[in-house]
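User: Round two. Same drill as before: sequence, then structure, for each protein.

Assistant: Same drill it is. First protein:
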Amino acid sequence: MPQTIIEKIIANHSKYDTVKPGDIVDIEIDVRAARDFGGPNVVKHFKDHNLTIDDVSKTFFTFDTNPTGSDQKYAVNQQICRQFAREHGIKVFDINNGIGTHTFIEEGLAYPGTTSLTTDSHANILGAVGAFGQGMGDKDMAVAFSKGSVWFKVPKSVKLNITGKRPKGISAKDIVLNLLHEFGANSLLGYSVELYGEEVDKLTLDERITIASMGTEMGTIIILFPPNKEILDYCSLRAGKEIKGVYADNNAEYDHVFDVDISTFKPMVSLPGKPHDTVNIVETKKVKIDSGFIGSCTNGRIEDMREVAKILKGRKVAPGVVLKIVPSTDRIWQQCLDEGIIKIFKEAGALVSNAGCAGCAAGQVGQNGPGEITVSTGNRNFPGKQGKGSVYLASPATVTASSIAGFITTVDKIPDEPEVFTSQEIKEKTQLAKEHKEHKQKPMSVEGRVWYIHTDDIDTDMIFHNRYLAITNINEMGQYAFDNLAGYEDFAKKAKPGDIIVVHKNFGAGSSRQQAVDCFKALGIQAIVAESYGAIYERNAINAAFPIVTYKTLESLNLEDGDTITINFGTGKISNLTKNTEIQAEPFSEVQREIYQNGGLF
């Protein structure tokens, strides 16, 4: 059976010769890595469940979200991981190393045809070298550490043909922002996307990394580049052995095939709040900025650093503007030092930090404050993601030119004299900062009446029957919740907003239907508490920012239907206010907390 790239890679790492979209298979994972973000929870799962390491040579920790170790909570988490690593002989890429996914490529651990799993939602960046990478939560990662494999649903594939000639001055970041403009955040949702074309084949490794890194923002499972000779030679050198690529069969089946003319692409900027809300840069020119950020897994490569240095050389960052630069790995940092790039940065007035994720992670270089306008090379600009201010996304060249000019512009439009804020504008910004209100956080503790359903294996057909699957409006889904669960056919009529459902094992087994989560959201159900969940249901609920909590035993809670309980998502404590009893359940993981506070995966 002819296969796409993703199908071949998955089949090669499973017990099957071929796989097809929709198949759920166990995949052997070549690189299994937990970060300082999520890593301590992986350690906790190991201790709680007496797990063992499957293959220490394939298991790693990467400390890239807080490489300075300056945040106390991160410092504690990093040390928890270090101690666990010492006990088990696990290699740690510590705070002096840089971004984990980039490190795997540099160290020859991830190369064409391999599989990698990390607690980084941008692990699909490895599609840049034709490898399969996925970000998953700490439970999945603990299983990967212990079993060496995880289950995965084979995605459908899309073929994206890039036609035409690449215009001069269009960077890799411009290419992916143009693609976001074309496809938005959900047109390619859940697909594995393969890129083809003459201009695609010319893309360097660094350019491929930039484009692949924003596959997450496009909603894709991964953007896969068929490796050319340059990529194969690089990966062979890093891995110390001959590497051959994995390529789609000529007659492979794709769910969609799109042709996109690159000759029409323009320099682009993402407006604050949504990476896919992209516009031609001419629509944002003259927007005054407070800061610029160059780095992240999207644009922290040596080619990016060289481009920035070329523009900065002999120039100064505008008065009142702070330009922050963070290489993606220590190897790249050292290259910058050897090539005199760091000196250019410093002479221009830029701040240079040690390698890491930077602006995407709270507490690191790249965060901004209330009222601050930042132009950034990052991949995300969700409200609060890079601080309390507003963030425009752009290419390294645009960020550099804007930092020199004092406003958003292109390299060819840098003025002789930078713009500075007038006294009136300074007053307005000061007032805005004073009036700034904290982003309203979703409650980390809830209280509600209990529906205690003493049943195991409540599947998705019982929750939301397949005869209603044509319904797409979430507001219409609530009336059918538990419509097919014996004894609870009238649940939707009796349930009240604020209620909490408590069940036993394997809640949400069965299909992948999102409606089985959304029907409860529509009714205003505050949370579901279960001993365990169907694997797909658990991901669907977390990604939809619907609170689900896992317990070990309810025995000491002395729970009865109709009792009032409180749940603290941060600590995992569940208290029965009616009986004055309590139990300790699992708190939200960092991933679950972030998605919950963000209002969903997107």
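Second protein:
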Amino acid sequence: MAISSVGAGAGILTTDVLDKLKAADVAATVTPIDSKITLQKQKNDALNLLDSLLTSFQSNVKALDDDSLYQKRTVSGNNDSVSVTADTGVKVQSMSISDTVMAQKNVVESGAFSSGEDKVASGEGTMTLSLNGEDFTVDYTSSTTLDDLKEAINTVSGGKIIASTLQVGTNDTRLVFTSGSTGTDQKIIIKDSTDGSLVDALKQTDTIKSGLFTASDSLVASGTPPLSGSYEITMNNTTYSVNYDETTTLSQLTDKINTAVGSDVASLKQVGSSYQLLIGSTAEGEDSTFKVNDVGGFLDPKLTADITNNTATEEILKASDASFKYNGITITRPTNTITDIVVGVSINLLKDAGSANINISQNVQAVNDELSSFVTNYNTLTSQLTSMTTSNVDKGTTGIFNGDSSINNITREINKLLTSINSDGLSLSQFGIDLDEKGTMSFNNSTFTTQFMKDTKLSEKFFSGMTTTTSTGGTVTNDGIFTSMSSLIDRYTKTNGIMDTLTSGGKEESTRLTDGKTKAQTLIDARYEAMTARFIQYDVMMTKLTNQFSSLQQQIDMAANGTAS
């Protein structure tokens, strides 16, 4: 209920007066709390900013205290023929690499097929591919195509032998076998089962084929009896001698060859109505020693002169090891990436006839970069600390933490460490890090590099400390300047540390002030609600009294007028 006027009906107390009274009470009680809340929020925001800056600064400090920073290595001398990489902590060293020969994979190409849909066999059988002592078998039938065989090989070998088809010309498609790795032990050997029927285009073993005979019992020698001689067959660097005479037939010669060799290398093949002697080498792959010779001179020329020596498959690229000279010593390895000469060093051969002079040194630039970041974060941190803790008379500003010793101490403690000198007589200023009269830090990377490289071990000890073993077997640990600084900053940034305590206290103070403001406002609101209610009641009573007085006045006036008359 609005009050137009309260008190004796004459407007002694109005709503406007009550509002002014309430505003005065709010200004005296609530407004000061509001100001404190605003100030505390500013402090909380400043504490959060300061905590973030200290955390970033601590990140740089910890990096400079980390031994791994000083174990980083840089490699110079790499070129397009030799590339070397070095792991962290590798011994600083130099090496020469020359006369490089690249390791190669084995690449074998089949004979010609008209397309990938060509059949690879006339019947059933098993193809075996051998590589480095491991066999991979593929079963085939008369319906197996070249594409089918390719997919089956890739499946069973698991990438150790890679099969692919290559169209080299019109109606000329080849199956290409490639070893998955390099090295001399990666030679691919292709075999058919004993009773297999792979087409000739997939045969890898060298085969000598005689001329055509009219029958399997055709005589193989002619001349005036009695006659004798020997058929010499050289294969796989071994010569086998098979005796013959005027009664020896083609079929008998076949059996004698197999007996002499100890293996079924010879067979008769019917070609139309004729017969042909086939002799396969015992060598795996091509056999450069494979040949036949007639000792006696009585054999049919079809067994010595009218022959063909061929293999359908062709070795396109010979499997070979890599070789190179390492500091003048010849080294061979099965791969072009060598990691077992120096622990943590990888030598990569990129082309033949290459050479390089490699230098592995400490990566000073990594330390340089971290110091540059340290200086930047230090200046950002201390600039904020200065504005938070000092007053500027000219500008009329006062830092939000002016006079707060816990915040003021941060810069003082950091600078005390920055300007300290260790037991070896070293200080940051010798490494190009200086503070001017305003407290701004600068960094001269040239000065740093020169000083650091004078004695990298001593420099590392100054920055991150070092643990040494005494003559009695004990250890002595010397903290570096950034070890000490990390411990200092950790006091502020760790859980339950100084910043955590200040931040938590700030939040609690904000909560306390907000609760206090709410309570004060509630009390004022309740007081003026009660006051308004009481004066409304007084107004009703005064109105009644005023009305009664007015009625009495009329009676008095009427009586006076009557008397007068």
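Residues 80-102+322-362 form one domain.

User: Perfect.
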